[in-house]
Amino acid sequence: MQRFFAGKLKTLVLISILVQAAGLCLFLLSFNQQQKVSREAAERNFQTGTRILENEMSWCADCLEDLTTKLVKYISYDLHNDIERIHRLGEMREYFYMLRNISEREYNFFLLNEEDGLYLNLTSVTIQFAISQPIQEQLKGSFDDTLSGVWTLQEAGGHSFVSCVHRRGGFRMGVWILTEDFLRENKENDDLRIALLPETEFSARHEGLYPFTSESSDHRISTCKANFILRATISKDNGYVLLFVLELILLILWMQVLALLIFAVFRVHRDLLIPMRNLSSTLKKYRAASPETFAVSDDEDENVRETIDDAYTILHEMEHNVNDLSTQLYEKEIENQKVQLNFRNLQIRPHFIINCFAMLSGMAQVSGNKEIKDTVIELSEYFRYILHDSMDMVTLNEEIGHIHTLVEIRSRIRGCRIEFSEDVSDEAKGEKVPALLLGSLAENSIRYSANSEGGIRIRLSGGKEDERLVITFVDNGPGIQQELMDEINNSAWERESNGHHIGISNMLERLKLIYGGRAEVRFARDDGDYGGTRVWIAIPLNADEEDN
């Protein structure tokens, strides 16, 4: 082990660092190649889209110029033949619709008579009126003849649009389109953004450290006249930057883990392996040599003593740590048991409390104050007793007193006679038992023996036998089913999920948690005068002192 750590540690560390560095380099190279391909694809998409856009702008401008010239000729042929003029205009509108359908963009062709200010849409306008109206009003305004046939970038009503207008003989014929419709972004590459800017902002290329920053390039319209340029911007790759940062974080974390591993190996080698090697070597010397032939110098003897002292110190510390861990585990187990006990202690028949208050309400209407006063006192004693913590130990005499109080309360609630008798030795009454242990049995007896002829009868007997407190509990109820008693006696009974026999379940589990396997419980059918269920309980004496 020592030879492995000492001889191979440097090699393992070096190989690990080289593998991590090679992985990071491959990551950078692969992503750089991928982003290069993505950027070239975006540039090709931009060039392709620009060529299509230039062609559309070119034939739109040419068609407008040609049709404007024809319009002037049509009007000059016969100014009084309105039917022929309308017919010619209809042909022009059909021609413009054909042009519009050829392109995927929403071009809007129009005709304006400057003499009377009549504005005519040669194609239908599909955008909202609130957007198109300010644009049309701006197109009706003054016109610079130097911009005739030039594609211009304008803004009206808070919306940007481009237009191309030809002016002939008092008529303007042109086309306009919103900028967002004019710039159809390539959907296959979300990193590409195209914008229209004034021609004065032209710059050959704006390069950055891609993919960490954005880069852009400007393009002039070459097939026709335009006072704006197209700027294509390839945005930075946020996904690549995020992956790169994550890779760096992983590398840093890995280096920290590696540093901790090296430190741990060093401490193990220094504090454990070296002392153990020295101890082993020393013991081998003493074992192999005879007293006559083996002799050590004072310095060697001092080294031997130091080695043995170091080994003893290490073993002593290890023993101390093991004891601490065992103590912590034991305390944790005790805490878990207390939690379970507290949880089970909360399951104290809530319907009984409700019945008590309902009984008080009824008695307040039909009875006198004395009976109510006595009942309240009994209830106070009952509730004061059941508020004991599940780990509390009380004397058997206190538990018997609690059963007397319970019998008195139940007698008032049910209106029937309940007879409770006890035969417990005086020395047994002073012994400690878990609080509410026998009370749950008494409640079960009263509950299931309510229909017994001659009233309910319960008997409790107890005494000391062989360093154990033995208690016998008998009632005259119908008794527990034989199958259930066999399961309980054979420790094969499981808690029922439907809420039945909660008292029995709590009693068995509390005895198991408090006494472990030292407490015994047996259920049987009573063969005597009572004829109900007989419960035999044996509890070790002074169990709480032994546990402490």
Low-confidence stretches: none
CATH superfamily membership of the largest domain? Histidine kinase-like ATPase, C-terminal domain
Write the H/E string, N to C.
HHEEHEEEHEEEEHHHHEHEHEHEEHHEEH
The strand order across the widest sheet is: 2-1-5-4-3
CATH architecture descriptor name of the largest domain: 2-Layer Sandwich
Shape: elongated
Compute the number of strand runs: 16
Topology diagram in text:
Layout: H1 2-77, H2 82-102, E1 108-113, E2 118-121, H3 129-140, E3 151-156, E4 159-168, E5 171-178, H4 179-182, E6 192-198, E7 205-206, E8 215-220, E9 228-234, H5 238-288, H6 298-345, H7 350-366, H8 369-386, E10 393-395, H9 396-414, E11 418-424, H10 426-429, E12 432-434, H11 437-448, E13 456-465, E14 468-475, H12 482-489, H13 502-515, E15 520-525, E16 533-540, H14 543-547
Parallel strand pairs: 11-13
Antiparallel strand pairs: 1-2, 1-5, 3-4, 4-5, 6-9, 7-8, 8-9, 10-12, 13-14, 14-16, 15-16
Helix pairs in contact: 1-2, 1-5, 5-6, 7-8, 8-9, 9-11, 11-13
